[in-house]
Amino acid sequence: MTLSKIKPILESKLLELRTQGITKGNERVISGVKPAANGYGGRYLLAGQGQKQFLRMNSNSYLGLAMHPAVIAAEEKACRAFGAGPGAVRFISGTFAPHLELEKKLAAFHDREAALTMSAAYATVMGVLPQLITDNTLIISDALNHNCIINGIRLARPKAKAIYRHLDPNDLEAKLVDFKGKVDRVVVVTDGIFSMRGDHAPLDRLVAVCNDHENEYAEGIITVIDDSHGIGAFGATGRGTEEYTGTRADILIATLGKALGVNGGYVVADQTVISFLRESAPFYIYSNPITPGEAAAAAKALDILDSDEGEKLLTLVRHLTNLFAQGLVELGYEIIAGDHPIVPVLIRDTSRTAKLVSFLFEQAILATGINYPVVPKGEEEVRFQISAAHTEQDIELALDKMALFRKKL
């Protein structure tokens, strides 16, 4: 047996993607990190770029905790105590003390009864959604939800699925009215922070709509939020969209790999839900957990977030975000305004988006071009992500380069 018959098909698919201009291309490899110096934040070396030092403005590490000495020390200490990897899935001697400590802290941080960690937030969404959905369930999803939610719904195969207009509680309500009497259970799922735009779900209004229609369904309405970009970067104390809107979902999914700076995903809910997921979610049961070192590092990052130092980091990242956003508007760029450190610059053209990303790369700045089909046609953008590891001088430098690009146009 060979791949001779399928290779031409795959090559044709790749050519089609290249023709459309939507391939990811070769990955840029970070080969070194230079510490902050002379009023500037850290710089990154890339393979093939010699000693050219890049300002990284496309990182999810919103608080800079990935490089925090205490977080690194916590991971190193746990690695020396427990080894580099878990060596098994959780129920076959793969659960270590740092896993339980982290889950206890996550539950307390979110004021929930229990928490469960998995290998990634993507795996957590894929593991949780199908377990909540039966063959008599309707699932309703925001139109711009993340790919993990879309694939989680596909894997779940509900009786019915519906999509409400982005951030539109009235359209959600219309869907709930339409399906009354047709299903026993409803699951409403949304991103907290939408990663391409930096805007947030109006969770208070969405939950209010669900509460109004709860009694019309025999098994009720379950609200689920994936706030992977929100936790640690949004809300007064970094508790995300729930804190910002003053409303809780029934089930919260998030990541350890963005603002907390480590790796892995988690879900928090009441004890019954978490106990059920431990016994039923295949992405938990049949996959290795994060390493004990990662669990210890994430626990330390959570401690920092939930402290005076964390509040100072949140204040700093908000200040730098506002500084950058205001500067872009003054330069004449169109942005999607918001309180999250994702700052999208709407270019609305695939070719011009690529030109801006390429120009910034030449100027030693890393930013991400987002094109169709990741975003709708006409909403192509360059996404900047601000971090507490940046400085005001970094922001000024980036704005200078954006001004230079505008002059070149």
Notes on the structure:
The chain is of the alpha/beta class and 409 residues long. It folds into 2 domains: 26-56 and 308-408, Aspartate Aminotransferase, domain 1; 69-305, Type I PLP-dependent aspartate aminotransferase-like (Major domain) (Aspartate Aminotransferase, domain 2), CATH 3.40.640. The protein has 15 helices and 14 strands. The strands form 4 sheets. It has a 7-stranded mixed β-sheet, with helices on both faces. The chain has a 3-stranded antiparallel β-sheet with strand order 11-14-13, with helices on one face. Strands 1-2 form a two-stranded antiparallel ribbon. Helix 6 (147-156) links the parallel strand 5 and strand 6. Helix 4 (97-109) runs parallel beside helix 12. The mean pLDDT is 96.
